[in-house]
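One record is given unchanged without comment:
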Amino acid sequence: MSDGELGELNADERLDWLRLWRSENVGPITFGKLLGRYGSAAAALEAVPELARRGGRQRPIRICSLADAERELADTRAAGARLIALCEPDYPRPLAAIPDAPPLIAVKGHAHLFAERTLAIVGARNASAAGVRFARNIAHELGEMGFVIASGLARGIDTAAHDGALESGTVAVVAGGIDVVYPPENEGLYGDIAERGAVIAEQPVGKQPQGRHFPSRNRLISGLSLGVLVVEAALRSGSLITARMALEQNREVFAVPGSPLDPRSRGANSLIRQGAALIESAGDVVEALENLALPTLHEPERDLFSAAPAAPVGEPEVAGSREAVAGKLCPTPIGVDEILRQCRLTPAVLLTILLELELAGRLQWHPGNQVSLP
Protein backbone atom coordinates (compact mmCIF):
# COMPACT_ATOMS: atom_id res chain seq x y z
CA MET A 1 0.00 0.00 0.00
CA SER A 2 1.20 3.51 -0.77
CA ASP A 3 1.61 5.61 2.39
CA GLY A 4 -0.91 8.13 1.08
CA GLU A 5 -3.74 5.64 0.50
CA LEU A 6 -6.47 4.80 3.00
CA GLY A 7 -5.65 1.48 4.62
CA GLU A 8 -3.56 -0.22 7.28
CA LEU A 9 0.16 0.52 7.38
CA ASN A 10 2.49 -2.44 7.51
CA ALA A 11 5.11 -2.68 10.29
CA ASP A 12 7.88 -0.98 8.31
CA GLU A 13 5.61 1.83 7.11
CA ARG A 14 4.41 2.48 10.66
CA LEU A 15 7.99 2.86 11.86
CA ASP A 16 8.79 5.19 8.94
CA TRP A 17 5.73 7.33 9.71
CA LEU A 18 6.70 7.51 13.38
CA ARG A 19 10.32 8.38 12.60
CA LEU A 20 9.28 11.18 10.25
CA TRP A 21 6.66 12.50 12.69
CA ARG A 22 9.14 12.60 15.59
CA SER A 23 11.92 14.22 13.55
CA GLU A 24 12.97 17.80 14.21
CA ASN A 25 10.94 20.62 12.60
CA VAL A 26 8.40 18.20 11.07
CA GLY A 27 4.94 19.45 12.05
CA PRO A 28 1.66 17.91 10.93
CA ILE A 29 1.27 20.14 7.86
CA THR A 30 4.88 19.64 6.79
CA PHE A 31 4.48 15.88 7.30
CA GLY A 32 1.56 15.82 4.87
CA LYS A 33 3.35 17.89 2.25
CA LEU A 34 6.48 15.73 2.52
CA LEU A 35 4.39 12.60 2.08
CA GLY A 36 2.59 14.09 -0.91
CA ARG A 37 5.82 15.21 -2.53
CA TYR A 38 7.93 12.08 -1.98
CA GLY A 39 5.22 9.41 -1.99
CA SER A 40 6.26 7.63 1.21
CA ALA A 41 7.62 8.40 4.66
CA ALA A 42 10.74 6.38 3.86
CA ALA A 43 11.55 8.52 0.84
CA ALA A 44 10.79 11.70 2.79
CA LEU A 45 13.18 10.65 5.57
CA GLU A 46 15.96 10.35 3.01
CA ALA A 47 15.18 13.81 1.58
CA VAL A 48 14.80 15.77 4.84
CA PRO A 49 18.51 16.31 5.71
CA GLU A 50 19.34 17.78 2.30
CA LEU A 51 16.17 19.90 2.28
CA ALA A 52 17.10 21.36 5.67
CA ARG A 53 20.67 22.06 4.54
CA ARG A 54 19.45 23.82 1.40
CA GLY A 55 17.06 25.87 3.53
CA GLY A 56 20.00 27.35 5.44
CA ARG A 57 20.35 25.04 8.43
CA GLN A 58 23.89 25.13 9.80
CA ARG A 59 23.91 21.89 11.80
CA PRO A 60 22.43 18.51 10.81
CA ILE A 61 18.73 18.15 11.47
CA ARG A 62 17.78 15.54 14.07
CA ILE A 63 16.08 12.52 12.49
CA CYS A 64 14.28 10.13 14.82
CA SER A 65 16.28 6.89 14.86
CA LEU A 66 14.83 3.48 14.12
CA ALA A 67 15.70 2.39 17.66
CA ASP A 68 13.82 5.34 19.18
CA ALA A 69 10.76 4.65 17.01
CA GLU A 70 10.78 0.95 17.94
CA ARG A 71 11.07 1.92 21.61
CA GLU A 72 8.10 4.30 21.39
CA LEU A 73 5.97 1.65 19.72
CA ALA A 74 6.87 -0.88 22.40
CA ASP A 75 6.25 1.61 25.23
CA THR A 76 2.89 2.58 23.72
CA ARG A 77 1.83 -1.08 23.64
CA ALA A 78 3.07 -1.53 27.20
CA ALA A 79 0.81 1.36 28.24
CA GLY A 80 -2.17 -0.53 26.80
CA ALA A 81 -2.50 1.75 23.77
CA ARG A 82 -1.79 1.64 20.04
CA LEU A 83 -0.76 4.13 17.39
CA ILE A 84 -3.32 4.84 14.66
CA ALA A 85 -2.16 6.55 11.46
CA LEU A 86 -4.05 9.26 9.63
CA CYS A 87 -4.56 6.96 6.63
CA GLU A 88 -6.00 4.07 8.66
CA PRO A 89 -9.73 3.28 8.95
CA ASP A 90 -9.84 3.61 12.76
CA TYR A 91 -8.53 7.19 12.67
CA PRO A 92 -11.38 9.63 13.49
CA ARG A 93 -12.52 10.92 10.08
CA PRO A 94 -13.63 14.37 11.33
CA LEU A 95 -10.18 14.83 12.86
CA ALA A 96 -8.53 13.65 9.64
CA ALA A 97 -10.26 16.49 7.80
CA ILE A 98 -8.53 19.32 9.67
CA PRO A 99 -5.43 20.67 7.89
CA ASP A 100 -3.09 20.07 10.84
CA ALA A 101 -4.32 16.63 11.90
CA PRO A 102 -1.55 14.65 13.63
CA PRO A 103 -0.21 11.89 11.37
CA LEU A 104 -0.29 9.45 14.29
CA ILE A 105 -2.33 9.40 17.50
CA ALA A 106 -2.03 7.08 20.47
CA VAL A 107 -5.39 5.58 21.42
CA LYS A 108 -6.32 3.65 24.54
CA GLY A 109 -9.78 2.17 24.79
CA HIS A 110 -12.57 1.79 22.24
CA ALA A 111 -11.74 3.31 18.85
CA HIS A 112 -15.20 2.37 17.50
CA LEU A 113 -16.53 5.44 19.34
CA PHE A 114 -14.83 7.63 16.71
CA ALA A 115 -17.49 6.58 14.21
CA GLU A 116 -20.25 8.14 16.34
CA ARG A 117 -21.45 11.74 16.37
CA THR A 118 -19.21 13.62 18.78
CA LEU A 119 -19.72 16.88 20.66
CA ALA A 120 -17.11 18.62 22.79
CA ILE A 121 -17.88 20.14 26.18
CA VAL A 122 -15.23 22.40 27.69
CA GLY A 123 -15.06 25.08 30.35
CA ALA A 124 -13.42 26.52 33.41
CA ARG A 125 -11.13 24.51 35.66
CA ASN A 126 -12.30 26.51 38.68
CA ALA A 127 -15.93 25.96 37.73
CA SER A 128 -18.86 26.88 39.96
CA ALA A 129 -20.97 24.17 41.56
CA ALA A 130 -23.83 25.11 39.25
CA GLY A 131 -21.56 24.92 36.20
CA VAL A 132 -20.31 21.48 37.19
CA ARG A 133 -23.87 20.21 37.71
CA PHE A 134 -25.00 21.63 34.38
CA ALA A 135 -22.06 20.14 32.48
CA ARG A 136 -22.57 16.70 34.01
CA ASN A 137 -26.31 16.72 33.34
CA ILE A 138 -26.14 17.96 29.75
CA ALA A 139 -23.35 15.48 28.93
CA HIS A 140 -25.52 12.68 30.30
CA GLU A 141 -28.56 13.84 28.32
CA LEU A 142 -26.63 14.28 25.08
CA GLY A 143 -25.14 10.84 25.59
CA GLU A 144 -28.61 9.36 25.88
CA MET A 145 -29.43 11.10 22.58
CA GLY A 146 -26.60 9.22 20.86
CA PHE A 147 -23.70 11.67 21.09
CA VAL A 148 -20.20 10.82 22.25
CA ILE A 149 -18.80 13.57 24.49
CA ALA A 150 -15.21 14.74 24.01
CA SER A 151 -13.25 16.85 26.46
CA GLY A 152 -9.75 17.40 27.83
CA LEU A 153 -9.73 15.61 31.24
CA ALA A 154 -9.01 18.92 33.01
CA ARG A 155 -10.43 19.89 36.37
CA GLY A 156 -13.88 21.42 36.59
CA ILE A 157 -16.14 21.37 33.53
CA ASP A 158 -14.07 18.79 31.60
CA THR A 159 -14.20 16.35 34.51
CA ALA A 160 -17.95 16.83 34.91
CA ALA A 161 -18.58 16.29 31.19
CA HIS A 162 -16.61 13.05 31.13
CA ASP A 163 -18.33 11.84 34.29
CA GLY A 164 -21.78 12.54 32.89
CA ALA A 165 -21.05 10.69 29.64
CA LEU A 166 -19.25 7.62 31.02
CA GLU A 167 -22.23 5.33 30.48
CA SER A 168 -22.92 6.41 26.89
CA GLY A 169 -19.39 7.11 25.64
CA THR A 170 -16.74 9.75 26.20
CA VAL A 171 -13.34 10.57 24.68
CA ALA A 172 -10.57 12.26 26.67
CA VAL A 173 -7.86 14.09 24.74
CA VAL A 174 -4.78 14.48 26.94
CA ALA A 175 -2.01 17.05 26.51
CA GLY A 176 0.88 14.74 27.44
CA GLY A 177 1.65 11.12 26.66
CA ILE A 178 -1.10 8.52 26.63
CA ASP A 179 0.17 7.14 29.95
CA VAL A 180 0.41 10.48 31.77
CA VAL A 181 -2.62 11.45 33.86
CA TYR A 182 -3.01 15.19 34.35
CA PRO A 183 -4.25 16.42 36.71
CA PRO A 184 -3.19 13.54 38.98
CA GLU A 185 -6.47 13.56 40.92
CA ASN A 186 -8.24 12.38 37.75
CA GLU A 187 -6.41 9.05 37.73
CA GLY A 188 -9.56 7.15 38.63
CA LEU A 189 -11.60 8.93 35.94
CA TYR A 190 -8.82 8.29 33.41
CA GLY A 191 -9.03 4.57 34.19
CA ASP A 192 -12.80 4.56 33.79
CA ILE A 193 -12.58 6.36 30.44
CA ALA A 194 -9.85 4.02 29.16
CA GLU A 195 -12.02 1.03 30.13
CA ARG A 196 -15.37 2.31 28.87
CA GLY A 197 -14.53 5.11 26.43
CA ALA A 198 -11.32 6.20 24.73
CA VAL A 199 -8.23 8.28 25.49
CA ILE A 200 -6.26 10.07 22.74
CA ALA A 201 -2.76 11.55 22.87
CA GLU A 202 -0.58 13.24 20.26
CA GLN A 203 2.59 13.44 22.36
CA PRO A 204 4.90 10.44 22.79
CA VAL A 205 4.32 8.02 25.64
CA GLY A 206 5.83 9.26 28.89
CA LYS A 207 5.78 12.93 27.87
CA GLN A 208 4.77 15.26 30.69
CA PRO A 209 2.36 17.99 29.50
CA GLN A 210 3.81 21.47 29.05
CA GLY A 211 2.03 24.77 28.47
CA ARG A 212 2.53 24.70 24.70
CA HIS A 213 0.90 21.26 24.48
CA PHE A 214 -2.54 22.44 25.63
CA PRO A 215 -3.46 24.56 22.57
CA SER A 216 -2.39 21.61 20.41
CA ARG A 217 -4.60 19.34 22.53
CA ASN A 218 -7.49 21.79 22.14
CA ARG A 219 -7.42 21.62 18.33
CA LEU A 220 -7.91 17.85 18.59
CA ILE A 221 -10.90 18.24 20.91
CA SER A 222 -12.65 20.54 18.43
CA GLY A 223 -11.43 18.56 15.41
CA LEU A 224 -13.08 15.39 16.70
CA SER A 225 -16.43 17.10 17.13
CA LEU A 226 -19.41 18.49 15.27
CA GLY A 227 -19.33 21.42 17.64
CA VAL A 228 -17.97 22.75 20.92
CA LEU A 229 -20.14 23.68 23.91
CA VAL A 230 -18.56 26.16 26.33
CA VAL A 231 -20.16 26.01 29.77
CA GLU A 232 -18.05 28.46 31.81
CA ALA A 233 -14.94 30.32 30.65
CA ALA A 234 -13.02 33.46 31.45
CA LEU A 235 -12.29 35.93 28.65
CA ARG A 236 -8.74 34.62 28.37
CA SER A 237 -8.94 30.87 28.70
CA GLY A 238 -8.14 27.63 26.97
CA SER A 239 -11.83 27.06 26.40
CA LEU A 240 -12.04 30.14 24.19
CA ILE A 241 -8.98 28.89 22.30
CA THR A 242 -10.89 25.67 21.67
CA ALA A 243 -13.91 27.68 20.48
CA ARG A 244 -11.74 29.74 18.11
CA MET A 245 -10.18 26.58 16.70
CA ALA A 246 -13.64 25.09 16.22
CA LEU A 247 -14.62 28.09 14.08
CA GLU A 248 -11.40 27.80 12.07
CA GLN A 249 -12.22 24.12 11.48
CA ASN A 250 -15.75 24.98 10.33
CA ARG A 251 -17.32 23.46 13.44
CA GLU A 252 -20.17 24.96 15.45
CA VAL A 253 -19.79 26.83 18.73
CA PHE A 254 -22.39 26.77 21.50
CA ALA A 255 -22.28 28.59 24.83
CA VAL A 256 -24.18 28.54 28.11
CA PRO A 257 -25.04 32.04 29.40
CA GLY A 258 -24.09 33.06 32.90
CA SER A 259 -24.21 35.94 35.32
CA PRO A 260 -22.36 39.06 34.14
CA LEU A 261 -21.09 39.37 37.71
CA ASP A 262 -19.16 36.09 37.48
CA PRO A 263 -15.81 36.33 35.62
CA ARG A 264 -16.20 32.65 34.72
CA SER A 265 -19.21 33.55 32.56
CA ARG A 266 -17.68 36.40 30.60
CA GLY A 267 -16.08 34.19 27.97
CA ALA A 268 -19.29 32.26 27.24
CA ASN A 269 -21.36 35.45 27.23
CA SER A 270 -18.88 37.00 24.81
CA LEU A 271 -19.22 34.03 22.48
CA ILE A 272 -23.00 34.45 22.48
CA ARG A 273 -22.66 38.13 21.58
CA GLN A 274 -20.44 37.06 18.69
CA GLY A 275 -23.05 34.65 17.35
CA ALA A 276 -22.61 31.38 19.24
CA ALA A 277 -25.86 29.50 19.83
CA LEU A 278 -27.26 30.10 23.31
CA ILE A 279 -27.70 26.77 25.06
CA GLU A 280 -29.89 26.05 28.08
CA SER A 281 -30.57 22.34 27.52
CA ALA A 282 -29.52 19.32 25.50
CA GLY A 283 -32.52 19.92 23.29
CA ASP A 284 -31.14 23.33 22.35
CA VAL A 285 -27.96 21.67 21.06
CA VAL A 286 -29.86 19.14 18.99
CA GLU A 287 -32.16 21.83 17.60
CA ALA A 288 -29.21 24.05 16.67
CA LEU A 289 -27.53 21.17 14.84
CA GLU A 290 -30.72 20.26 13.00
CA ASN A 291 -31.11 23.82 11.73
CA LEU A 292 -27.57 23.98 10.36
CA ALA A 293 -26.17 22.78 7.08
CA LEU A 294 -23.28 20.88 8.61
CA PRO A 295 -20.15 20.57 6.50
CA THR A 296 -18.94 17.27 5.16
CA LEU A 297 -16.21 16.27 7.54
CA HIS A 298 -14.84 13.25 5.76
CA GLU A 299 -12.55 14.75 3.15
CA PRO A 300 -9.65 17.11 3.91
CA GLU A 301 -9.51 20.27 1.88
CA ARG A 302 -7.15 20.21 -1.09
CA ASP A 303 -4.70 23.05 -1.58
CA LEU A 304 -2.85 24.42 -4.57
CA PHE A 305 -0.10 21.83 -4.08
CA SER A 306 -2.44 18.84 -4.37
CA ALA A 307 -1.56 18.32 -8.01
CA ALA A 308 2.16 19.04 -7.58
CA PRO A 309 4.32 16.27 -9.08
CA ALA A 310 5.95 13.82 -6.71
CA ALA A 311 9.35 14.24 -8.36
CA PRO A 312 11.63 16.49 -6.26
CA VAL A 313 12.71 19.82 -7.68
CA GLY A 314 16.44 20.25 -8.22
CA GLU A 315 18.69 22.90 -6.72
CA PRO A 316 19.13 24.90 -9.96
CA GLU A 317 15.36 25.44 -10.17
CA VAL A 318 15.11 26.98 -6.70
CA ALA A 319 18.51 28.61 -6.13
CA GLY A 320 17.50 32.00 -7.49
CA SER A 321 14.17 32.15 -5.67
CA ARG A 322 14.90 30.91 -2.14
CA GLU A 323 15.80 34.26 -0.59
CA ALA A 324 13.03 36.04 -2.49
CA VAL A 325 10.51 33.73 -0.85
CA ALA A 326 12.16 34.09 2.57
CA GLY A 327 11.95 37.86 2.16
CA LYS A 328 8.16 37.69 1.85
CA LEU A 329 7.81 36.13 5.30
CA CYS A 330 6.96 38.05 8.46
CA PRO A 331 5.54 37.15 11.89
CA THR A 332 2.01 37.58 10.54
CA PRO A 333 0.79 34.51 8.60
CA ILE A 334 0.39 35.06 4.86
CA GLY A 335 -1.33 32.84 2.32
CA VAL A 336 0.92 30.65 0.21
CA ASP A 337 -1.08 31.58 -2.87
CA GLU A 338 -0.16 35.24 -2.28
CA ILE A 339 3.55 34.35 -2.15
CA LEU A 340 3.07 32.32 -5.32
CA ARG A 341 1.58 35.31 -7.12
CA GLN A 342 4.15 37.81 -5.90
CA CYS A 343 7.17 35.61 -6.62
CA ARG A 344 5.76 34.20 -9.87
CA LEU A 345 6.91 30.65 -9.19
CA THR A 346 5.43 27.27 -10.04
CA PRO A 347 3.71 25.45 -7.15
CA ALA A 348 6.35 22.71 -7.27
CA VAL A 349 9.25 25.15 -6.87
CA LEU A 350 7.52 27.14 -4.12
CA LEU A 351 6.58 24.01 -2.18
CA THR A 352 10.19 22.83 -2.28
CA ILE A 353 11.44 26.17 -0.96
CA LEU A 354 8.84 26.28 1.80
CA LEU A 355 9.70 22.75 2.90
CA GLU A 356 13.40 23.67 2.96
CA LEU A 357 12.75 26.74 5.09
CA GLU A 358 10.46 24.85 7.46
CA LEU A 359 12.94 22.05 8.02
CA ALA A 360 15.71 24.61 8.55
CA GLY A 361 13.62 26.23 11.29
CA ARG A 362 13.04 29.43 9.30
CA LEU A 363 9.30 29.08 8.61
CA GLN A 364 6.14 27.87 10.29
CA TRP A 365 3.09 26.38 8.54
CA HIS A 366 -0.41 27.32 9.71
CA PRO A 367 -3.86 25.91 8.89
CA GLY A 368 -5.50 27.60 5.93
CA ASN A 369 -2.35 27.13 3.83
CA GLN A 370 -0.59 30.05 5.46
CA VAL A 371 3.03 30.49 6.55
CA SER A 372 4.96 32.87 8.77
CA LEU A 373 8.31 33.40 10.46
CA PRO A 374 8.61 31.04 13.46
